[in-house]
C-alpha cells in the first residue's frame, strides 16, 4: 500500500548482483589485473561494488552520472525540512525473516515511523465534499480484501499448474469486482496503484500476488523521517569499502561523480567506457546498475548492440512513475492525531490526487501534507508548471475541507520521469513477463553479435 517498492526493488537488485558477481569473482580471480567498471552509484551499484571488494576484487571504478551517490534514494530541503524525494518507506517489517534494509536502518539508528493505514475507511472524502460514512468505505475495503485473497489463491493455482500469467484486473473480473464508482476506484487505487505505481490492468498477477517483500519479511511499513535522509543507508554501504576522510566524507578515487556514461564498446579483449565529458575508461568487465528506464532509453550506446534476447527482455519491463508532492501551509486545517495519518479523496478520475498523508508526527508543527500521484498523472504533472499543480491541489483540498483554507506557501514536485538519469522511480512487473525474462536481464552478456 505504499510506494516505492523502494526496498523491495533494492532487495531484488541485490539478488541480481549476487548472481552476476559470483561469476565475476571466479572469472577475474584468474586475471592478472582484474578490473571492473561499475556504472551507477545507487544502492544496487554500490552493493555490487562492495561485493566485488569483499571478494578481493579491489581494482574497481565506479562511474556515477550525477553529483552524489544514492540514485533514487535522495533527500532534499523543503521549507526548512529534510524530505525524501524518492524512496521513503522500509517495506516488509515484522516477519520471521529480517529485511536487510531494515537491519541497516536500525544499525545506523535512522528515525522511522510506523505507517498506520487502519483508519482509512474513516477518512475517505467525497469529490463534492464531506466524508463517506465509515461503514460504506469499510464495506469497499472488505470487498477489496476478498478480491486480494481470491487473487493470491488464483496466483498460487496458476503457478502450480504452470498456466500463463494474467493481469490483476483479470482476476478482479473473474471475481466480478471491477471498480467503477469514485469510491471503488479510490480504494482500488490505494491498494494497487499506490503500491505498484501502475493500475491493475498492466500488473502481473503471478509476480505480485502475494508480494514477495511482504510475504518474506512481514507486512509492516515504516516511513523514514530523519534529517540525515534515507540515503544514509547507501552511505553506510559505501563506507564499508570506500575510503573516507576524518569528516566521514567519501574520498576514494575509485568513485567518480558527474561521469555520465554514454557509450560502452565491448569485445573479447574487454570494454571501453566513454562518458559525456569525453573521458575514456578501459576495463575487463563492466557492470550496469542504472534503472530499467535508462537502459530502455538512448542514453547509453552499446557497440556492438546487446544481443536481441537481452534487449527484448529489458524492454518488456515497465519503468513506473511515483510522485510524492509536498505542500507547506501557514497552519493546519486537517484532522491530526491517532487514526488520521492517511486520508483518501475519491474523484471520478482514477488517481486524481487520491492518497494524502499528514506529517505531523514526522515534522511536528511544520504544517506539511504529502499527496501521491502515479503513472500517467505523474507524467502529466511533471510536464506542467508547479503553479498549475498547486492550483489543482488547492482545488482538491478545498473540496475536502472548505473554501476558507489557506493557500499553500510552498510546493515540491519531484520529476523522476523527466530526469534522463532515472526515467522513473521503480520498475513494475507487467503481465506475461516470467522469471525467465528477468534472468535474461541479469545474466552475463558475453561480447558477441548473437
From TrEMBL:
Residue numbers binding FAD: 44, 64-65, 261
Record-linked Pfam families: Amino_oxidase
Chain segments annotated as coiled-coil in the UniProt record: none
Record key words, sorted: FAD, Flavoprotein, Oxidoreductase, Signal
Pathway(s) served: Amine and polyamine degradation; spermine degradation
The keyword Disulfide bond appears for this protein: no
Keyword Disulfide bond belongs to the record: no
InterPro entries hit by this protein: Amino_oxidase, FAD/NAD-bd_sf, Flavin_amine_oxidase, Flavin_monoamine_oxidase
Signal peptide from the UniProt entry: 1-29
Family assignment from sequence similarity: Belongs to the flavin monoamine oxidase family.
Protein name: Amine oxidase domain-containing protein
Organism: Vitis rotundifolia (Muscadine grape)
